[in-house]
Structure formats: structure tokens, C-alpha cells
Automatic annotation (TrEMBL):
Residues 10-225 form the ABC transporter domain. GO terms for molecular function: ATP binding; ATP hydrolysis activity; transmembrane transporter activity. It comes from Parapedobacter luteus. The keyword Nucleus does not apply. Pfam families: ABC_tran. This is Putative ABC transport system ATP-binding protein.
Length: 225
């Protein structure tokens, strides 16, 4: 039964994924109430990144159902799914770079465009200011430091006020001080923008800050032998 006041933002039912000629992964069911930031924990190779891609509408599961913010994700036609992702899902993947030929501000504008929204420069200025990047609005990504790049990726992910904010090992290569500041930013942004965080990690420093966890199955259970 669902509480009327607390929405379920993620629901995963009987989801499996079979890589062609590869591993068969089975994911335990998951239900995340709005605002309950959740860690995805598991060893390397256990399927965390695969799961995040499935939750983000980037990888259609072989079986099962994925609901995000009340929408059965894979019932949407491709174009609608792209638009839904742009509106409701903020992605922070390690490889997801900003478009290099566009300024930081222009990158935010195309993120609004992908979501089918009008360009809203007031919103862009507000988010860049929150992330202490207002002075970089007209800079190109290659002029930013690493920390600024990471903040720009977060800015892009939250620009459309997503329901869920998905991050893949966001602190893996950071020292303690930067880990602390990225976690603070993610938590503050999620709370201010009303997003629920989903973070794949095995970083103890993250576990200290977010206690709700979803554990990946251990290797033997995943074996397709
Ligand atoms: P994690 O993020 O937890 O390290 P992944 O989701 O990346 O795990 O990978 C889960 C399993 O799926 C691993 O055994 C990996 O080798 C396999 N896998 C990942 N991507 C592919 C792919 N594109 N093709 C075939 N197998 C893959
Ligand atoms: Mg991974």
C-alpha cells in the first residue's frame, strides 16, 4: 500500500538483464519512497552500473518492470523516453561529459531543450550560483578545474528539478576533502530540488552519510552456469 503523502519514486519488479553472450544479472526488487536517498552497494562487477542504466532509461531490461516517478519507463516510445529522462532523471556518470564546444551556460540550455522545456536563464543562473559556478557561465568546459567540472556535471543534472538524481561512483577518485564537498553538494541539491539520490558506491565515506542501502546479489547467485 502506498502512503498518499509519500510517493514511490523508484519501483523495480522482477528485473533481469542478459548481456548478449554475457552475464545474466538478476536484480532484487526495489521500492524507494520520495526523499529516501539510497545507496547501491556491491563488489565491482556485481551490476551496479548496469542497474543505474536500467533505472535511467538507458538500457531496457530483458524482463521486468521499472517505474520512475509513477511512470513505467519502458512503456514509453523512444522519443518520449528521452524527454522523460531529461525532465525527471538527473544523471551523473563518470563518462558523461559536457559538450566541449558549448559554454557551461549553453550546456545548461541544451539540457533544458532535451527535456522539452523552454530555456530558462533565471533558473540557470540560480543553479550556477548555488554551485558556486556563476563566474564560469561563459567558460568552456576545458577551462574548468576538476572540481568545477564535477560541480558543472551536478548543475546539469539538477537543472530540470529531476525526481531522481543518479550518480555512479561519484567519489571514487576523490580525496577526503573533495569527497566531503561533493557529498554535501549532492545532498543539499537533492534536498533543495526535491530529488531522491541514488548513488552506486562502495566508498565507506559515502556509507557514513547515507544509510539506506540496496545490496547487489553476490557473485554465485549471478552465475549463469
Ligand atoms: P559494476 O558497476 O558493479 O562494477 P557492471 O554493471 O559494470 O558492474 O557489470 C556487471 C557485469 O556485467 C560484469 O560481469 C560485467 O563484466 C558485465 N558487463 C558490463 N557491461 C557489459 C557489456 N557491455 N557487455 C557484456 N558484459 C558486460
Ligand atoms: Mg560500475
Amino acid at each position: 500500500m502506498q502512503d498518499n503523502l509519500v510517493k514511490t519514486v523508484i519501483r523495480l519488479n522482477n528485473v533481469t538483464y542478459q548481456y548478449p553472450q554475457g552475464e545474466s544479472l538478476h536484480f532484487a526488487d526495489l521500492e524507494v519512497p520520495s526523499g529516501q536517498h539510497t545507496l547501491i552497494l556491491g563488489d565491482s562487477g556485481s551490476g551496479k552500473t548496469t542497474l543505474l542504466h536500467i533505472l535511467s532509461g538507458l538500457l531496457k531490461p530483458t524482463t521486468g518492470m521499472v517505474d520512475i516517478d509513477g511512470q513505467p519507463l519502458y512503456e514509453l516510445p523512444a522519443r518520449k523516453l528521452d524527454e522523460f529522462r531529461g525532465q525527471r532523471i538527473g544523471l551523473i556518470f563518470q563518462e558523461a561529459h559536457l559538450v566541449k564546444s558549448l559554454t557551461i551556460k549553453e550546456n545548461m540550455q541544451i539540457a533544458q531543450g532535451f527535456a522539452g522545456a523552454k530555456v530558462d536563464n533565471t533558473r540557470i543562473n540560480e543553479v550556477l550560483a548555488l554551485l558556486n559556478l556563476d563566474h564560469k557561465a561563459d567558460s568552456y568546459p576545458n577551462k574548468l578545474s576538476r572540481g568545477q567540472m564535477q560541480r558543472a556535471a551536478i548543475a546539469r543534472a539538477v537543472i530540470n528539478k529531476p525526481a531522481i538524481l543518479v550518480a555512479d561512483e561519484p567519489t571514487a577518485s576523490l580525496d577526503d576533502r573533495n569527497t566531503e564537498s561533493v557529498l554535501n553538494l549532492l545532498l543539499t541539491q537533492a534536498d533543495q530540488q526535491g530529488a531522491t539520490l541514488v548513488i552506486a558506491t562502495h566508498d565507506k565515506r559515502v556509507k557514513n552519510r547515507i544509510t539506506r542501502a540496496y545490496e547487489m546479489a553476490t557473485r554465485p547467485a549471478l552465475s549463469n552456469k
